[in-house]
Amino acid sequence: MFQARSRLPVLPVIALTLALVVSACAAPPPAAQPAQQPAAPAAETIKIGALYGVTGGMSSIDAPGMNGMKLAAKQINAAGGVLGKQIELIAIDGKTDQTATTNAASEMINVHKVVAIGGLNDSTFALAAGPIAQKAGIPFVTAGATLPTLPEQIGDYFFMAPFGDDAQAYAIADYAIDDLGAKTAYMLVDQAYDFTTALAKFFKERFTGRGGTIVLEDIYKSGDTDFSAQIAKVKALDPQPDVLFISAVPSEAGLTTKQFREAGLTAPIISGDGFDTTLIAEVAGENADDVYYSTHAGLDNPDPKVQNFVKAYTEEYGRPPENAFAALGYDTLNLIADAIKRAGSTDPKAIRDALAATQGFNAVTGQISYASGQRKPDKSITIIKVQDGKYSFVKEIKP
Questions:
Q1: What is the rounded distance in angstroms from the CA atom of residue 26 to the CA atom of residue 47?
Q2: Averaged over 16-33, what is the pLDDT?
Q3: CATH number of this structure's domain 45-163+300-368, picked from the four choices 3.40.50.1460, 3.40.50.2300, 3.40.50.300, 3.20.20.150
Q4: What pLDDT is attached to residue 398?
Q5: 323 contacts 276 by C-beta, under 8 angstroms
Q6: CA 237 and chain centroid, separation
Q7: What distance in Å separates the CA atoms of residue 166 and residue 179, rounded to the nearest whole number?
Q8: Counting Cβ atoms within 10 Å, is residue 50 exposed (0-12), middle (13-18) or buried (19+)?
Q9: How many CA atoms, within 13 angstroms, populate the side-chain half-sphere of residue 114?
Q10: Is residue 213 within a helix (H) or strand (E), and if so which, with residue range?
Q11: Which of 51, 281, 338, 381 is deepest in the core (most CB within 10 A)?
């Protein structure tokens, strides 16, 4: 059976409902409240890009460079940072590849929002990444790329921490003439890199300008592993040249030294900072002797600034700095941090202006000053000798 339910009268319910609807429609809407946007938090860190080819053919100079930058960041942060903020390095491997290098620069700028970039030790890769930073208005300080025309080619946001190839080529040419007594030279040049071709051009200019003679010029392709054809041409020369100038990147420095020495060619081998690599001793072994090259610093230099860096690097990584490129990486980040401090701002344009105004910055690799309108420093050049696999400071040459 169903139990009957009591029901409210229909008409009063309808009337009540209509009244409520009319009342709601007539009521004024609540006052609009301004949207409360959370205040943008101040950046907790200052992001700076560290771009190197830590793998691939440049690894023997770029990996130490990256380590130098990381050491500088650690020391800066331990001392309180810059403008009350910590430095955050955005480190990306360019893999000694132009596409990977340009992609890394773009990622640093567009994804990580860095305020400056430092790194790269070869001009070909600097020419790939530099224009990306220039277009974005982000300062780029190359740690070791030495093509002297880089600042003009790339633009006013690009700076060099090192001297140019003209300076180091002139220095090794002068050393060959003044200290090794050379009157004749053989030249072997890697045709693949802006650095190697520029270094050779400036060496020839200086050596011949001072009365020397180039008895033979030869070339090879980057990546070659057999230099027997070039060696045969040198051995056929009579008389033999006083010095053998080899313009190579680090990956071929040890290999050319090894093969030329094994072939019985005993004349001094001379070069630029592409030879500032542990690969000479590692690859050439007992044949790593009577080799001279121009570079950015002698790590056995007793100067306290150099030795303090060597000590700190050794404590951090358990081994001494591999070459001057470690010091260049260290100097590069300290130079950028100094510019941020002097600018009193993390605005990229303000950093750029402060970099351009740099005068008398005392770096491990020498004093950095930029003349008005110039973004390449005039620094002293160090000559290093490799004998029995050991690297030692020989001479410092003023430009």
A1: 56
A2: 37
A3: 3.40.50.2300
A4: 84
A5: yes
A6: 39
A7: 19
A8: buried
A9: 26
A10: strand 213-220
A11: 51
